[in-house]
Specification:
Elements: E1 8-13, H1 23-30, H2 36-44, E2 48-50, E3 53-54, E4 67-72, E5 89-92, E6 96-101, H3 118-126, E7 150-156, H4 159-170, E8 175-183, E9 190-194, E10 197-200, E11 203-209, E12 218-229, E13 232-242, H5 249-256, H6 272-276, H7 281-288, E14 295-303, E15 310-314, H8 319-326
Parallel strand pairs: 7-14
Antiparallel strand pairs: 1-4, 2-3, 2-4, 5-6, 6-7, 8-13, 8-14, 9-12, 10-11, 12-13, 14-15
Helix pairs in contact: 1-2
Length: 327
């Protein structure tokens, strides 16, 4: 688990396929978690070195074999404050807490969402018992869900629990599954979607399946229900299990697979209006009432980091997604 109070150092070696590329382009594609704008700023600020010398020109052309190091400064974030926000607590003991996060709740403070987050609520609920290993901005947080994804999350109350949970997330030994309502019906009832995920080269604010660079990503899916009438099916409820945990993985993979998640404002199909023309009035209304991507983290199971017991919890589908299933 990264410590945001320390300087992070990254290293990248230029391969032949990047010969002649701009430095900012090469580095942003090598490290998809950082936008090109962020990389450019780091270059200008003197945070990138080559053979011990600072490189401050973002447009510098790179050569095969060159090795660049990035020193990412420590984050400077305000300490979150306690804010009383109702939480749906599924399980709680002295070491950890599992909550069923509603859609619309941001996990931790960030630009644009400085407060009223899950972290603020956890501080109010748990007090000083929260683990500090996640850093001042993210006490107790071991993993996250997107703002508009609902479902189960676990947070640690002490550093031992935090390390134990983080290790299970790192080696993907936990049981985690999501349910999503997607447009259309996959040709096979179950399967695997595989494709590296990195920054979308045409829109750096989005992720995409990329042919070069990115990070290895694997999603297993299973069709649970088809939605339609008169043998015409316009949507399906699927279960997704992650073999890896990349940013927006399910949303990106399902879009690349030709079955974007219904209601996804970022990765939704470009021809959603066309798709909506083929649905029933009831289903159309359910989609209009959704106001978020139809994605729900319904299952989480792991070895308790202190007791060693296997624990598992499931969360029922929220009403808005259930309305799509029943339409």
């Amino acid at each position: 688990m990264k410590d945001p109070t320390k300087i992070e150092t990254l290293q990248a070696t230029v391969v032949e396929s990047f010969a002649g590329s701009r430095l900012d382009k090469f580095l942003s594609e090598s490290f998809a978690e950082h936008s090109r704008t962020r990389i450019k700023s780091l270059i200008i600020d003197g945070c990138i070195t080559n053979a011990g010398a600072k490189v401050t020109d973002p447009s510098r052309r790179v050569k095969p074999g060159e090795v660049f190091e990035i020193a990412i400064p420590a984050l400077k974030t305000a300490l979150p404050v306690a804010q009383k926000i109702d939480l749906n607590v599924v399980y709680e003991d002295d070491d950890l807490i599992i909550i069923d996060k509603p859609a619309g709740l941001v996990v931790h403070p960030a630009p644009g969402n400085p407060d009223r987050t899950l972290v603020n609520a956890l501080i109010a609920h748990c007090g000083s018992s929260l683990s500090g290993i996640g850093g001042e901005a993210r006490p107790g947080i071991v993993h996250r869900l997107d703002k508009d994804t609902s479902g189960l999350m676990v947070a640690a109350k002490n550093d031992i629990a935090h390390r134990g949970l983080a290790a299970q997330f790192s080696d993907h030994s936990l049981d985690r599954a999501y349910k999503a309502m997607v447009w259309g019906v996959p040709k096979t009832k179950s399967g695997v979607i595989e494709g590296n995920i990195g920054r979308n080269p045409r829109n750096r604010k989005k992720m995409a399946v990329v042919s070069r660079g990115g990070k290895h990503a694997v999603t297993h899916y299973k069709v649970e229900q088809r939605v339609g009438e008169d043998n015409q099916f316009w949507a399906s409820l699927i279960e997704c299990r992650l073999e890896t945990g990349r940013t927006h993985q399910i949303r990106v993979h399902m879009t690349s697979f030709g079955h974007p998640i219904i209601g996804d404002p970022v990765y939704g199909a470009k021809d959603v209006k066309k798709l909506k023309k083929n649905v029933s009035v009831v289903f159309h209304k359910a989609v209009e009432n959704l106001n978020r991507q139809a994605l729900h983290a319904y299952l989480i199971g792991f070895i308790h980091p202190i007791t060693g017991d296997k624990i598992s919890f499931k969360s029922p589908l929220p009403r808005d997604i259930l309305a799509l299933c029943n339409a």
